[in-house]
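Quick entry between incubations.
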Amino acid sequence: MKRRTLLLSGLGAAGALIVGWGVLPPRSRLGRAELLPAVNGEVALNGWIKIAADGSVVLAMHRSEMGQGVHTALSQLVAEELDLPLGRVRLTAAGHDTIYGNVAALLGNLPFGPRDHDRAGYRLSSWVTAKVARELGINLTGGSSSTADAWLPLRLAAATARAQLLGAAALKLKLPVAELTVKDGVIQHAGGALAHYGQVAAQAASTPPGEVQLKEARQWTQIGQARPRVDLAAKVDGSARFGLDVRQPGQLFAAIRHCPMLGGGLGPANLEAVRARPGVLRIVELGPVAGSTAAYAVVARTTWHALEAARALEAAWQPPPGAAADTAAIQAALERQAREADAAGAGFAFLDQGDVKQGLHQALSRVEAVYRAPYLAHVTMEPQNCTAQVRDGRVSLWAPTQVPGLARELAARVAGVPLEAVDLQVTYLGGGFGRRLDIDFIGQAVRVAMDCGGVPVQLVWSREEDTTHDFYRPAEVALMRGGIDKSGVTALSVTAASDALVPRWLERVAPGRAPWLDLLNRNGFPDARAPAALLAPGDAPDKTASEGLFDLPYAIRHARVAHVPTQSGVPIGNWRAVGHSHHAFFRESFIDELAHAARIDPVTLRLQLLDGLPRHQAVLKRVVEASGWGGPRPAGTAQGLALHESFGSIVAQVAEVRAEQGQPRVVRVVCAIDCGTVVNPGIVVRQMESCIVFGLSAALRGRIDIAGGVVQQKSFPELGLLTLAECPAIETYFVPSDGPPTGVGEPGLPPLAPAVANAWFALTGERRRSLPLAA
Amino acid sequence: MELHVNGQTRALPEAAADPAMPLLWALRDGLNLTGTKFGCGIAACGACTVHVDGQAVRSCVTPLGSVVGKTLTTIEGLGAPDHPHALQLAWLAEQVPQCGYCQSGMLMAAAALLARNPDPSDADIDAAMTNLCRCGTYPRVRAAIKQAAKGRKP
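Done. Structure below.
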């Protein structure tokens, strides 16, 4: 009770909690019709839905399309409740109201595991967090949360609109509303067509919806169907507009040249010579903005002139104030800190059950191992970019971003204008993977545009700048210890050291809110962890720094999972699946080690440890069956298996591996998933393929090294991304579920690396404990 | 300076008429043909692939001066709205693109492959399709090329 009071007063002081406190989140997200500007005879019925004169429906799209198919899946939810063909749902950009905020993403960041869901603390924390998230209303596409977040509010918005439209038709035609039905967007009575939505929309706006009921699953005709994606026609003929495709009248182009040393500064440079190059108009000095390193931006008439001039810039760059980052030294320091904390029983214990010291001591035998993960770059195919125009006290932005609201706030701060003076149009994103949860490039573009006399300017990062000035997946070292006896695993101790991620991210993207969100995070532990969480020095314990390790599906009597937050000075960010991506490698590889040490089949051991979690067991059984686990294998190949829950979804994968020049070559991956109710199975299957290919690049290669503060890998040739020729055969199977939809954009990634590592062990007897595996 | 692009002769604006300028930027910034993408500038990813006299080339390292007078095709000219290329249809049938950024280059590379090899084997596809995709569309790209090849066989 005390903690809640503290939380409420804190946020109240921030002015965050004023309205809607007593209202359930989905209901309170219907939004007023005034939120949607109506044009060309359209009628807005709430904050999401407009009815066009021709009877089609216009949906306010609040989430960013970066390949995950969200524009299609959310359109399907609306088409479902309005009984409309998908082709008659059109999209318009949503505005900036808090109804478009993301509640599910913040809920997904609560520090609970699959065995905590029945605890009172879990429910209290979820309730408080949902309320706060609703009031904050941060629009964020990430955390594999879009469908989960929209599931109730969007269907409710569509069903409410439908009820109003039917009510209006009943009044107009003097028929009982119960006798009206809808087919393909046409209101019918006794089998005869009466009117399409557009013909009753004006009356519907003033018709109360009455009691609104969502369809039952057996009535669904859209949900569960592999509908073609709504954005693909434009993606096969070149007409889809990404950030770099923005073209405004008179537009200029700017290329960036950061100080090569991360966190370093500018120094004397050959600016005269650069300015004299063909096509160059001016050079803008950029201090650090939203976490960026200082840079020069060269403005020119074409992208090429700008890129060439930026490349020709030579400067006496200033080193960063502290020690320049060096990955070898960082890895050594992480291991030292993990070992010290392990010996002292220190670090923040996200999980502490039983008596792990005693458990390890009493075990028949013990296994100890050190696991390591490197820094990783996002490498979106579309380099970072933003187009900005600053004119007459207004800022116009065209940006591929996952956080449009935070981007507007940053633009307002940089330009010194009120928030209302910033317009932002979200373009298609040429990949996101979490890189575009950062907004450094947007702040930079605004600053450059301020020097361009009201003319729009497109800031473009070269591939080299993009690779060397990313916010990287954090490096991490984990000391793992396990105890086994004849019955299986009795003790597990994990002490991991890495930089906390969320606090650093919040500081740069939402500086005004960072202290309050820190407080919210500290209050997310309404259980025995609360005192330590509230009193933790420095940052609040960062769930992403331990997710995938502490949220243990396995019933292990004595278990302690702790994290030591470090300060390595390297810019780190949200990389697809965030902590899960490398933690699944640590945990699922180590469970495999324990199974081998205990001489128990890895599947048998997992099924036993998953006691009481039937959904996890079902996913494991499905992948075992589909992959022919334990059956005859082609000569020279072996299988490895991993299971991981992330973003609410449970995924198991079996990788089939052979050796090629001493390195693993993955020839087949079989994947099983339980992601709750499947809205579009075609999209889910492709997201699993996406996660597996993306994950395989990272599992095998793609490490980022830093020496003297300078990132050593510059472009594609040094990154070794997976090619089509190396792509394994991939099969995906669903485990049916009638639960609410959970994530699909990331959960397919975490199990891949350990499945490959476990297969490599099965093939060669060599246990590789450091990523990348083919180093 | 003029270019023969997608069946038309187009004059380049002065700012984009440097013979040393890579074709990519003349298309994107000079002619507003933004379907051809910038990925790396060093011919490593293939996002910028276009056809020069029917051959797939990486336009980010192809100087403008070397293509004057030649026949250029970009993604915007691969098919027409009422007459899409077989690969574009196969791409939709297989639901290939995800983020879509690399797909123009993928389609242009695949079209050049099918033009010289109407029935490519898996090994032919491996060798020709070196374009990089971060979303992992590779299995669908392979399937769509095969589907398009099958549909075109007599």
